[in-house]
Amino acid sequence: MAEPRITSQGMRVLNAFVEAGHIELSGADISQRTGMLSGTLYPILTRYRSAGWLTDRWEDDEPVELGRPKKRFYRMTPTGQLAYQRGLEKADEGVIAWAR
Amino acid sequence: MGSMIGALILAAIGWIVVSLLNTWLRAEATAWFETLPKWIILKGAETLPEDERAAAAAEILSINVAKKSPTARMIDALSFYFQAGRAARALQANEGPLPWFRTKREARLAMHKAAGVSILVIVGGFIEGSALVHNVFTSGHASQFPIAFVTMLLTILGPGAFGAIIIARHFLALRRARKLIRA
């Protein structure tokens, strides 16, 4: 699969992981940190997961026990970190409109 | 004095009824607001490939329920319905089947079939309607002409509109298929 294009919105997602200290973040956490809606966030997460920039795992407990839908947790991979660095360079060059 | 007491009792009863109505309406509205975003998300997920639907719906629901405001939940659900499904389908356009048709050829064939059936029905309706109008005239019941004419129009326009809707849906699906293949 072709590598995803780094966009300003994609950088916001990757930056959420960097700012959180590379911990696992759920979709809800990312949405809250970036202020992005599901419609924008979901395709980005799908693309980055397929590209290996993010890894994912589902919450272990069942929704009945949790009393809410299961969360999917994401973690940034070293490849994702490299992509983030490339994004920073692109932002410095003015190729993408993004600032931390 | 008596009428004043009567008015007061009526006002109290009215107030109770309005309060009950208010409580009931709020409960109904809350229940709708609880179910509506979920329904929208599930509808949006339906457009995704079958093996991804459940995971996508669960993930979006988990993002959605974390939002506190019901309005934010609705906007979030709608954003998934309108954008995510389309974008995710675009990603899988070359790997999985398209939502309606596997190929552009299938889409075109379906559209031509719908157009053929519609034209046939419209022509049939026109011939039948014309015969009806003609019969009304020749039988000397000219006063019934407006009814016959409206019947003729309905016979033509009804299937015509139905056919047009089917063709439009097929056309939109074809356009979407093309867009996804290009993506």
Describe this structure in words.
The complex is a heterodimer of chains A (about 100) and B (about 180). Chain A has helices at about 10-20, 25-35, 40-50, 65, 80-95, and strands at about 25, 55-60, 70-75. Chain A has about 100 residues and is an alpha+beta fold. In chain A, strands 1-3-2 form a 3-stranded antiparallel sheet. In chain A, helix 1 (about 10-20) packs across helix 5. Chain A is elongated and about 50 Å long. Chain B contains 5 helices and no strands. The longest helix of chain B is centred in the first third of the chain and has 45 residues, at about 1-45. The interface between A and B is medium-sized, with 20 and 26 residues.
Number of helical regions of chain A:
5
What is the chain-wise order of helices and strands of chain B? HHHHH
How much of the sequence of chain B is in beta strands? under 5%
Helix content of chain A: 40-55%
Low-confidence stretches of chain B: 94-98
Number of strands of chain A: 3
Characterize the overall form of chain A.
elongated
Order of helices and strands of chain A: HEHHEHEH
Class from helix and strand fractions of chain A: alpha+beta
Number of strands of chain B: 0
Q: In this structure, how is the largest beta sheet of chain B organized? A: none
